[in-house]
Amino acid sequence: MNLQEVERLLQAYKGGELNAAEAAQKIGALSYEDIGHTRVDHARAARQGFPEVVFGAGKTRAQVVEIVERLVAHAPNVLVTRTDEATFGEVRNVVTDAEWHAAARMIRIRRDREERGAGEIAVVTAGTSDIPVAEEAALTAEAMGNRVSRVWDAGVAGIHRILAERERLQHARVVVVVAGMEGALPSVVGGLVGVPVIAVPTSIGYGASFGGVAALLGMLNSCASNVTVVNIDNGFGAGFVASLINRRMKDEG
C-alpha cells in the first residue's frame, strides 16, 4: 500500500473533501480492487518496486482495457505483455499515450522516465530470431527506470561478433542474454564479464531443440558461475529481475 496516498486521503477526509465511507472505500482500493474478473493489485509497486504487469494472453480485449484503466489511475507506468495490435487500439482509446511495440507484442505506458538504475543493462541476442523475447526484456527494464543497451545477432556461430562487444558488455551492471538452438551464448558472455548474467532460452530452433528445452538445459548446466536462468521465452521476467539487481546495487551505494 502506498503510504503517501493513504496520507493524502486522510487529509482529504480531514478537510471535508471525502466522507468516512468514501475515504474507507478509496483506502481499501489502494491494496487491491476487485473488478469481478480480476483483483487488480495496487499494492504491487510498494512491495516489488513496480506495478502489477498485465499478461494479455487469454484475456479479452475488454478485460485488458478495464485492468489498464484501473492501473493507470494509481501508477504512471504500466505494461501489457503477450497481446496484439487490436487490443492496443482499444487501450489507446482510453489511454492516448500508450505505446505499441510490435516485436515484443507489448503495450507500454511510460509516463515516469526517472532513471533508477545504478548503471546500464545490456540485452544481447544470439540471433535475429531471438529479438522479440529480447525486446520484451529491454522494454520492461526501460519501463522500470533503467538505461538499456541492445546487442543483436552476436551468437557463437560467429564468435568474433560477441568478442567485438566485449568492452560494452564489461561496462554493464547486468547482462541479459537471449538464445535459442543449443543456448551456448550465455556461457560465453559469462566468461567475459564480472556481473550477473541472466540467460533466457527461446523456443527458436529445429526439432531437437524441443521448443527451447535444449537451450534451457544447456543454460542450467552452464559452467560460468555468474549465469542464472529464467523460463523459456520469459523476456519479461529477465528484464524485471535485471532491473531489481541494478536498483539494489544503487540502493547499497
Provide a compact summary of the structure.
The chain has 253 residues and is of the alpha/beta class. It is built from eleven helices and eleven strands.
List the helices and strands and how they pair.
Blueprint: H1 3-14, H2 20-29, E1 32-34, E2 39-41, H3 44-48, E3 54-55, H4 61-72, E4 77-81, H5 85-94, E5 99-101, E6 106-110, E7 120-125, H6 131-143, E8 147-151, H7 159-163, H8 166-170, E9 174-179, H9 185-190, E10 197-201, H10 213-220, E11 227-229, H11 235-251
Parallel strand pairs: 3-4, 7-8, 7-9, 9-10, 10-11
Antiparallel strand pairs: 1-2, 4-6, 5-6
Structure description:
The chain is an alpha/beta fold and 253 residues long. The protein has two domains: 49-110; 120-251, Rossmann fold. 41% of the residues lie in helices and 18% in strands. The strands form three sheets. It has a five-stranded parallel beta sheet. The longest helix has 17 residues, at 235-251. It is elongated, with a radius of gyration of 20 Å. It starts with a helix and ends with a helix. The mean pLDDT is 89.
Order of helices and strands: HHEEHEHEHEEEHEHHEHEHEH
Largest sheet data: 5 strands, parallel
- Radius of gyration from CA coordinates: 20 Å
Through-space gap between termini: 26 Å
Q: pLDDT below 50 for ≥5 consecutive residues: which ranges? A: none
At the fold tier of CATH, the topology name of the largest domain is: Rossmann fold
Number of helices: 11
Give the assembly state of these chains: single chain
Quickly give the CATH architecture of the largest domain: 3-Layer(aba) Sandwich
